[in-house]
């Protein structure tokens, strides 16, 4: 079930790619303008196309990443209208009129971007997001992403209202660095930038129940005493796969499968060590009886769990 939904929700990566492409179009315009200022009018028009796409795509991405898929292509209408108007604008009107029109549209597009940024931020306050460890990481990524987008937007505003070429070049360079940083995070932390079904409340509950079921089966059937028990064996037993089970245990038991297994084995060894009937059993025998296949591993885990050795623990209870 989760694997199918992962494919379904992988569209968020395409939204992020579209955002980065739109920003590249706008920032690329600035880079080319620095080199070829004589093409300023045409380049500005192309940059505005990218800016009018950024806002809606940004909002789509934030909403889809944290809540659910929500795509209304009417939000891209201003961008499409500008694409249709550009050829007409290129062949009509004086150069001065063209400049005034493009300047007006450019400044309007800045407001357009800001409105959608605010709408994206509003997602945090208008919806109750599941407070899981995985979800919190995505929220932190969104905060970083929103901050980076806002910094770039400020750069666009500075470039629109300040005519100093040195500042223009510095701002452009800063925008390129921010865009590169976002792309780098996207490539190295893929799990953060895409939506998975684990972000929906339904599947959060499903994973939580799966973790509870795994622990219950381990304890009820004492599967942990099997030294050859693996996560794939347990996953097959409860009807899932090892990847999903590992995800559930890490998120809802706050520990990995090996740590959970060692904990249950140590807890069982405590029972055996306290039982007077097992006084003739050696420490090694109790270790193997508890599911450990290595005495050194047993000693290390026992000491970490109780702070004393198995022999010391046994002696304390023999004196009672």
Description:
By secondary structure, the protein is mainly alpha-helical. It has 15 helices and no strands. The chain is elongated. The two termini are 53 Å apart. The N terminus is likely disordered.
Number of strands: 0
Please give the share of residues in helix. over 70%
Strand content: under 5%
What would the principal axes of the Cα set say about the shape?
Answer: elongated
User: Which radius of gyration do the C-alpha atoms yield?
Assistant: 30 Å
Distance between the termini: 53 Å
Mean pLDDT value: 81
Runs in which pLDDT lies below 50 for 5 or more consecutive residues are 1-9, 197-201
- Structure annotation, total helices: 15
Q: Specify the structural class.
A: mainly alpha
Secondary-structure blueprint of this entry?
Elements: H1 2-8, H2 11-35, H3 40-66, H4 77-91, H5 95-126, H6 133-161, H7 165-188, H8 190-193, H9 201-220, H10 231-238, H11 242-252, H12 257-274, H13 283-289, H14 295-306, H15 310-318
Helix pairs in contact: 2-3, 2-7, 3-4, 3-5, 5-6, 6-7, 9-11, 10-11
Please give a quick description of this structure.
This protein is mostly helical and 320 residues long. It is 78% helix and 0% strand. The longest helix is centred in the middle third of the chain and has 32 residues, at 95-126.
Any key phrases for this structure?
320 residues, mainly alpha, 78% helix
């Amino acid at each position: 079930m989760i694997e199918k939904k992962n494919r379904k929700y992988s569209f968020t990566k395409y939204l992020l790619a579209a955002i980065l492409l739109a920003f590249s179009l706008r920032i690329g315009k600035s880079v080319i303008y620095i080199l070829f200022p004589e093409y300023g009018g045409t380049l500005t028009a192309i940059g505005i196309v990218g800016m009018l796409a950024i806002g809606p795509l940004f909002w789509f991405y934030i909403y889809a990443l944290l809540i659910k898929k929500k795509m209304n292509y009417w939000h891209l209408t201003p961008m499409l209208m500008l694409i249709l108007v550009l050829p007409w604008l290129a062949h009509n009107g004086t150069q001065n009129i063209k400049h005034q029109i493009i300047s007006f549209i450019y400044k309007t597009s800045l407001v357009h971007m800001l409105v959608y940024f605010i709408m994206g931020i509003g997602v945090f306050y208008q919806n109750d997001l599941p407070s899981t460890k995985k979800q919190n990481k995505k929220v932190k990524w969104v905060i970083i992403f929103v901050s980076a987008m806002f910094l770039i937007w400020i750069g666009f505003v500075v470039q629109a209202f300040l005519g100093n070429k040195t500042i223009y070049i510095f701002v452009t360079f800063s925008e390129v660095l921010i865009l590169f940083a976002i792309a780098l995070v996207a490539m190295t932390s893929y799990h953060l930038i895409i939506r998975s079904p684990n972000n929906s409340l339904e599947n959060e509950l499903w994973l939580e129940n799966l973790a509870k079921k795994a622990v219950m089966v381990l304890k009820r059937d004492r599967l942990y005493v099997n030294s050859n028990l693996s996560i794939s064996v347990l996953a097959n037993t409860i009807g899932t796969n090892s990847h999903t089970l590992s995800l559930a245990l890490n998120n809802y038991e706050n520990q990995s499968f090996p740590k959970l297994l060692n904990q249950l084995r140590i807890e069982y060894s405590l029972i055996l060590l306290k039982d007077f009937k097992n006084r003739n059993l050696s420490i090694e025998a109790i270790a193997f009886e508890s599911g450990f296949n290595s005495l050194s591993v047993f000693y290390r885990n026992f000491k970490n769990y109780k702070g004393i050795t198995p022999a010391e623990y046994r002696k304390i209870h023999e004196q009672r």
